[in-house]
Amino acid sequence: MPYEPTRVVTELDAARIRELGTRLPHRGENLAALTGLIDIVEREADIVPGENVDPDVVTVNSTVSFRDEPTGSVHRVTVVYPTEMSIGNRRISVLSPVGAALLGQRAGRTAYVDLPDGTQRALRVLEVHYQPEASGHFAR
Question: Which residues contact 79 (CB under 8 A, 6 or more apart)?
Fold first, then answer.
């Protein structure tokens, strides 16, 4: 059976994630989250041009529904860069545990998120409602 990467990340998202280290305040939690996300991108992801990403993959600025498997609760969020985060508008940072877990996942897959309290949760990606690349919105 051929190897299939766990995640798919666009070239632009990968480059911007790597660049975040130069733009974020160097507080411990930011640095730890960024280091973890860069590790995910470098070790677990197939990095592809934006025009080649499948429409069911969560990219930055995608709106996605997921189910918290232990509780059964369903959430709809948009995964964004830290400066665009707004919990009230359901815009979660790609550096948050949930945002990092969702990035690069396909609809139908289960992502595992390590929470700050040391527990792990299973999040099932139900649907990608909007993905900028699938809509032809390629940021430069």
Answer: 58, 59, 60, 61, 62, 64, 92, 93, 94, 99, 102, 103
Length of the chain: 140
Give the Cα separation of 4 and 7 in Å (integer): 9
Over the stretch 51-101, which tens digit does the pLDDT of each residue have? Answer: 999 999 999 999 999 999 999 999 999 999 988 999 999 999 998 999 999
Type of residue numbered 104: G
Q: How far is CA 57 from CA 62, 87, 126, 129, 132, in A?
A: 9, 22, 11, 10, 11
Query: What CA dihedral angle connects 46, 51, 57 and 59, to 10 degrees?
Result: 90
State pTM to two decimals.
0.87
Do β-strands 110-114 and 120-130 pair in parallel, antiparallel, or remain unpaired?
antiparallel
